[in-house]
Amino acid sequence: MSEIFTPLDAFLYWEEQAPNQIFLKQPINGQYVTYTYAEAGKEIRKIASALKSYNLPEKSHIALLSKNCAHWCMADIAIMMCGYVSIPIYPTLNATSINQILVHSEAKAIIIGKLDDFSVQKPGIPEMPIISVKLYNEDEGDSWEDLIEYHQPLQNINKQQPDDLHTIIYTSGTTGTPKGVMHTSGNLMVSADTLTTLFALPNNLRLFSYLPLAHVAERVLINAGVRLGGVISFAESLETFASDLEKTQPQIFFAVPRIWTKFREKILESLPQKKLDFLLGIPVLNSFIKKKLKKKLGLSEAVFICSAAAPIASSMVEWYRKLGIIIYQGYGMTEDCCVSHFNTNTDDKIGTVGKTLYNVKARLSDVGEICIKNECLMKGYYKEPEITASVFDSEGYLKTGDIGEFDHDGFLTITGRVKDQFKTDKGKYISPSYIELTLSKNTDIEQICVVGTGIPQPIALITLSELGKLKSKEDLSSSLIEGVNTMNPSLEKHEKIEKVVIMKEDWNVDNGLTTPTMKVKRNSIEKIHLQFYKSWFEMDDKVIFE
């Protein structure tokens, strides 16, 4: 398989070597629609032929707006076959954000797949060819199904080269306007190969794709699956997510911290902590309970389980380990194509993001900023040469914007973001990340944003978990005060949390307070609530209900 240098090479290899192997499994009304490598290849070539019929310029940019589904993967490969560049767009974005990306990226056409409500997004699409998929009840522009009926498979397939611009991935934007990160075909394969090597992943890997494919991590995971001739399954809906995952039992599972929080909530709803501890304490029941929970979560056959994209609390990792579920925390970003640091089964330390990977160079700047150099760094931000220049140092290291420290064993701990630091009115700088992680041990808390600009001490803005929402105000206040009182002695005087403010509404993508990958958008939250910090701080209560 040494001749595989690009994602297209990987697909073509398995299409030839294992044409009847199942490639994609798409649930529709509770039943799977499946595509073998050969069936997918035929459909992909016809869509590539249809794209070519639009007579677009060479290396045109083609947008992809869809939730994870079989047609996302096929569309991506069709774009490669044409020698075009893919512009993936988060399926939860509103019309304004979609328009911003389409205009900035100079997209010449768009493929519409599985969406929740395209009608509200449609105004964001300028005049351009549109392909939509009837299978997902979309009928805008040209029908995918009609195109594969009336077009012959593309004969002259583009020979994708490792240095070819493959995709422009727009960052999810925790701060400011999303930027278009340019990655080559070779970059995506280096990242996929790193993942498969690091965790010794098997051929015909079974995957469950659910985190947005517009995000680099899920894209790399899918490329790793194709590299290994994998079988990729999807969730039909949010309601069927748990059962779809349980049916799939993937061999590799990647989740962001909020997913792990949600899984824990669900377990504790049916098995409260005291009962769970009691059952796990009985030797004859211990392994039975663990095995049952792992199967119910869909993780009974997983050879690699990881958390990344945002920090996960050590207490959360330890909680899962008591269930026999080993979560390895890693670290990477869109700009370095996820190749940076990872814990592994031979080198693992809870609370860190692992050691520097074998094909990476890492160092800390004078202010503790993590700087990375690898073989798959981005080629820059699209149409932003000045911003691109600003994120590389004189030796070509990428300045990540994260602050960290290495321990004596070489494990890296992320201690904060350069831009997340804030100053209280005492003139003291605070990095909120550690405080937020420590507070998140409390299962009543769903999301946290520690703030303090213009007040003497920081305060914690939180949203409640489903478990927290079930408690009375008195019990909730006691729980939160206990958590703060337990944590504060470990903090410097100027870092100690003074108040906890419970938000009226959850933070989510729809209200613009989290990114599509569920990271809290600090700037947006501060913009709304900064005016209230002083009055909250001056209230007598320790816990304030907004």
Report what the structure shows.
The chain is built from 19 helices and 27 strands. It has three domains: 7-234, Rossmann fold (3-Layer(aba) Sandwich); 252-300 and 303-417, Rossmann fold (3-Layer(aba) Sandwich); 421-545, GMP Synthetase, Chain A, domain 3, CATH 3.30.300. The protein starts with 6 loop residues before the first helix and ends with a strand. It is of the alpha/beta class and 546 residues long. Helix content is 34%, strand content 22%. The strands form seven sheets. A five-stranded parallel β-sheet has the order 4-3-5-6-7, with helices on both faces. A five-stranded mixed β-sheet has the order 12-13-14-15-16. It has a four-stranded mixed β-sheet with strand order 2-1-11-10, with helices on both faces.
